Amino acid sequence: MSDTAERYCPNCRETREFVRTARTRMNLGTKVKWRCPECGFRIVNIENAVDTGVSA
């Protein structure tokens, strides 16, 4: 898994290269935390189950 990922940042209102800040294995799958280096916005995703970076 890469240490960076292109994601849309709602604070910056554009696509940014997020930096991986943590990775943990849990029952639902692998939880990965990402942070936008420009504004500090954070995204958490757990494999295909949870992604806080996707709007409902």
UniProtKB/TrEMBL annotation:
Which part of the chain is the DUF7838 domain? 1-52
InterPro entries of this UniProt entry? DUF7838
Going by the entry's taxonomy, the superkingdom of the source organism is recorded as Archaea
Q: What is this protein called?
A: DUF7838 domain-containing protein
**Organism of this sequence:** Halorhabdus tiamatea SARL4B
